[in-house]
Design goal:
Length: 154
């Protein structure tokens, strides 16, 4: 597929890259799945005195779900594992360090088609999925991140 058609057809969702602020633009490891890239406006219902036909729905602010990353269990030397260990295993003796995260949807030439940035992200959950003696699958870890806001850059 040429780059001419990349702008015509919707991009595939399987070729992407996640970059963390502490890895200086290098990819830590491949991820199986990224989810939680959405924004929603919180609303407040206000009843107007004397008007019974409707209520006003007013915007309050934007909320974001957690960003979830899934991948095969990485070695202890992975920058993401080091970051998660510092948050979950040091008993808060050191401050939690937030960092920017960028998710890029790539084309066949490894060029970004779409880019999302997530500001001030930090891990809030680190989970290893179930092991099963009847499974023939890779052991998966899931890292759940909170962030303050996101932007779509491209």
């Amino acid at each position: 597929m040429s780059s001419l058609f990349s702008n015509v057809y919707p991009p595939s969702a399987f070729y992407f890259k996640v970059v963390f602020g502490t890895t200086l633009g290098m990819t830590d490891t491949s991820f199986q799945e990224v989810s939680g890239m959405s924004a929603e406006i919180e609303t407040e219902t206000v009843v107007e005195g004397g008007e019974n036909r409707y209520v006003h729905t007013l915007p309050k602010g934007v909320k974001h779900p957690f960003l979830e990353l899934k991948r095969g269990i990485a070695p202890l030397t992975s920058p993401l594992v080091v970051w998660c260990k510092s948050v979950f295993e040091l008993g808060f003796i050191a401050p939690v360090v937030a960092q920017p995260i960028v998710v890029q949807l790539l084309d066949e030439k490894q060029l970004p088609l779409r880019v999302w940035s997530f500001a001030n992200a930090y891990p809030v959950k680190w989970e290893v999925e179930n092991f099963g003696s009847t499974k023939n699958e890779v052991a998966i870890e899931k890292i759940v991140l909170s962030y303050t806001y996101s932007n779509r850059l491209i």
